[in-house]
Amino acid sequence: MFSYTLRRLLFAVPTLLIISFLIFALLDLAPNDPLGDLPLTIPPEVREQMRAALGMDQSFAIRFLKWLQQFFINEPLNIFESITGLTVGDGHRLRVLSWATRSPVVDLIVQRMPQTLWVVGLSYLFGVLLAIPIGVISAYKQYSIFDQLGTFISMVGYSVPTFFTGVLLIVIFSSYLQWFPSIYNTNLVVNDWSSFTQQVKQMVLPVMVLTLYNTSQISRFVRASMLDNLHQDYVRTARAKGVKEKSVLLVHVLRNSLIPVVTVIALGVPTIFSGAIITEQIFRVNGLGQLLIVAIQGADIPLVQTLTFIFAFLIVLFNLIADVLYGILDPRIRYD
């Protein structure tokens, strides 16, 4: 297992370099111009000076190599210095800067990440915790009222877009019942019980929307995988040996059924960091999804490049984690 993990990590390095090149090239070919919204009265020579200040007067290869140096060398060194307090080199290295705010891109991401993790991360955790028992019970009691009701809710939750359920919950719980706020206050500081209560209330609606979607998606995979294993020979053998039904269901069937479900759950984890773009827009959550939308609209190429690459890196990482978990869940799988 260790040698396989090491090989996959070594293979991930050229993979991520190719991904970074493709992202950089596609965004460079995009028609967006960061200076396109400036007034036409600005003289051409001033525009050229502004383009030079942004580094747009340099060739594609130079800009790409500079971005690699800034992201893979300068930013990790800056993080190391901020954690340890030790200075490496002169300490005034060039970082990846946003064209719109002229602030370091990594600092902007760190500022927005807590909001995304609280809302999207919590909803994904609730979705997984609810989806597994719902899928198990639905498969074990196939065609029962619970199964039919769960199937109906899952199909509705997965099929109906989140912008509709988000607006619907705002109309019901915010406008009509006035139980929860419809706008997420990102400036709220939790320092006492009252502020903590406000934080919980403003998280309820966006977390409910995303939890419904995640639960609906994952529970269908759990149910289908459980049904495939419930009628296998090893299940009948375990029952014939007198193994308790609870042990057969939770130890034998569930463990084998989780193997394909692990892929769905693991590949869904990067969405926690990428943010729920639509839901964050509806509830005005100032997270990474909203940051990506603003960066795309403002043609802030360095910020879009960095965010997109981080999302791609997380997908590669959790793909590897899913493969490792296969070997843990199924003893028949051996990588060495």
SSE blueprint:
Layout lengths: L1 H28 L14 H10 L6 H25 L20 H36 L4 H15 L2 H15 L16 H38 L2 H8 L4 H24 L1 H5 L2 H7 L4 H10 L3 H29 L7
Could you list the spans in which at least 5 consecutive residues all have pLDDT below 50? none
How many beta-strand elements? 0
Instruction: Please give the CATH class of the domain at 105-329.
Output: Mainly Alpha
Described by the principal axes of the CA atoms, the overall outline is globular
Kindly estimate the percentage of residues that lie in beta strands according to DSSP: under 5%
Radius of gyration: 24 Å
End-to-end distance, in Å?
A: 6 Å
The topology string of helices and strands comes to HHHHHHHHHHHHH
CATH superfamily of the domain at 105-329: MetI-like
SS field, number of helical segments = 13
Rounded average pLDDT: 78
**CATH architecture descriptor text of the domain at 105-329:** Orthogonal Bundle
What's the short version?
The protein is mainly α. 74% of the residues lie in helices and 0% in strands.
Provide an overview of this structure.
By secondary structure, the protein is mainly α. It has a domain of 225 residues: MetI-like (MetI-like fold, Orthogonal Bundle). 74% of the residues lie in helices and 0% in strands. It has 13 helices and no strands.
Key words describing this protein structure:
MetI-like fold; single chain; globular; mainly alpha; about 75% helix; 13 helices; about 325 residues
